[in-house]
Specification:
Layout lengths: L1 H5 L6 H7 L14 H6 L2 H30 L4 H28 L3 H26 L3 H33 L2 H33 L1 H24 L17 H5 L2 H18 L5 H8 L4 H25 L5 H9 L4 H6 L9 H25 L5 H30 L1 H18 L21
Length: 445
């Protein structure tokens, strides 16, 4: 705890105030029972269960889609195209999604049609692709196309999802609620990943992947049901809603600095990230069961890290937590360089599981605490688009690097880039616009 308190730059107070994010003052929710803070209203309950069932589905797709493609005969370039499809879809969809979130009467309906509707159906289509496309190469390209469609639907509805979350979860318990919801999702993922890995191995062949993806679709439908049960508060008419603007957001020097660091972090992460699964299977000789166990190591570290985060998330500014965790990310590709067997990969999985679990919680808390309420869809869309453009650009660069110099060169470049991204978070930024109302400092990137 003393380390967290003392991790400050040796600079004067005036300069420190210039690089610190400012936002609405936050208060800890009264220390009522855990059940009240998480399940106190029907909206909180159904949103919590939506997260758990959604992650049971998404974990399977995230952990095994690349390996599914490899089993169908995908090349490294095609594995990279799967990641590129994610970023490209997000870049195309998020700003239209923000405009939709501003204008529609029901943001819940947007999510039910997008991520919870079309997005779920694409998982079923992934399971059925080899049935209708007997040529494995065609099935691989079908997976790439379905990945694009899945992320297009999800990204279009993301600003509406964030806006509705801000309305149904009060700001005074949002830090605690979000961290505990993500912890529950991580625990579910820790069981889903190895179960899927052993299921694929037990069934065998391409059929194993098909049945597991069909199960992921079933969990996705359960998530859609939970989300549909969330009571949506009525929205004022379009004429009565306060309107934000892109110009106002871009004039926010603190936020644009955070976006630059986020872009650098995710671009350099995705230079090598999509290729770890192929490296694990092809170069280190891992089986699908070993991939599942290593995913459990990853998720077990995430659970432990999020449990620890629960003790500090309400006690320390989120800006400080973000800065700390960003400096752990460069260790991940660096440690991968020394892996000689599949079980050596457990060490970077431990570091990565803990690091990214904490980063995902605190960076999301940052966005929800800092963004002005009237501009939340634009801030959310811009942040997510930054991540997804990086997810498009990173694999594109990584594909060239891996093809030219090999994956180990990509690991070195990724590690160096992550160090630069973490350092960017300490650059002083002059405030170009007045601070939002409220005196306290909000967590910043």
């Amino acid at each position: 705890m003393r380390v967290l308190r003392r991790l400050r730059l040796p600079i004067g107070t005036d300069l420190r105030q210039r690089w610190r994010f400012r936002g609405r003052p936050l208060s800890d929710h009264p220390r009522t029972s855990y059940q009240t803070r998480i399940f106190g209203t029907p909206a909180q309950r159904w949103f919590y269960w939506d997260g758990l069932t959604a992650n049971a589905s998404d974990t399977v797709v995230q952990q095994f889609l690349s390996i599914y493609a490899i089993a169908l005969g995908a090349s490294n370039t095609q594995v990279g195209l799967i990641a590129i499809a994610n970023g490209l879809a997000g870049a195309l969809a998020l700003y239209p999604g923000a405009r939709i979130a501003d204008r529609v009467a029901s943001r819940k309906l947007v999510v039910l049609i997008g991520a919870a509707g079309i997005g779920r159906l694409t998982v079923l289509a992934m399971a059925l692709a080899p049935v209708f496309l007997r040529d494995p190469s065609q099935a691989v390209y079908a997976l790439i196309a379905l990945t694009f469609l899945r992320w297009l639907a999800g990204s279009t509805s993301h600003p509406s999802w964030v806006g509705l979350l801000a309305d149904i979860i009060p700001i005074d318990l949002r830090r605690f609620y979000v961290s505990q919801r993500m912890l529950g999702m991580t625990i579910v993922g820790a069981f889903a990943a190895p179960a899927a890995g052993f299921g694929i191995r037990a069934i065998g062949g391409i059929e194993g992947f098909q049945w597991i993806f069909a199960a992921a679709f079933a969990f996705g439908i359960a998530s859609t049901y939970c989300y549909a049960r969330i009571p949506e508060p009525p929205r004022p008419s379009a004429a009565e809603r306060p309107r934000g603007s892109i110009r106002e957001m871009l004039a926010d020097g603190f936020f644009t600095r955070y976006l630059a660091a986020t872009f650098m972090l995710h671009t350099t992460t995705m230079i090598v990230g999509p290729f770890f699964a192929a490296y694990l299977v092809r170069d280190l000789g891992a089986t699908t069961a070993e991939v599942g166990v290593l995913a459990t190591v990853d998720l077990g570290a995430a659970v432990a890290a999020q449990l620890a985060l629960g003790f500090v998330v309400s006690r320390y500014p989120t800006e400080r937590l973000v800065r700390i965790v960003m400096f752990t990310s460069p260790l991940i590709p660096f440690v991968w360089l020394f892996a000689q067997t599949p079980w050596h990969a457990a060490i970077p999985h431990l570091i990565g599981g803990a690091s990214w679990a904490v980063y995902n919680v605190v960076s999301f808390n940052l966005l929800m605490e800092y963004a002005p309420p009237k501009n939340i869809p634009r801030y959310a869309a811009t942040h997510q688009m930054t991540v997804l453009v990086a997810s498009f650009l990173g694999p594109t660069i990584g594909t060239v690097i891996v093809a030219t110099w090999g994956i180990r060169a990509a690991m070195v470049i990724s590690s160096a880039g992550r160090v630069i991204a973490a350092g960017m978070m300490f650059l002083p930024v002059r405030q170009s616009t007045p601070a939002p109302p409220g005196g306290g400092s909000a967590p910043g990137g």
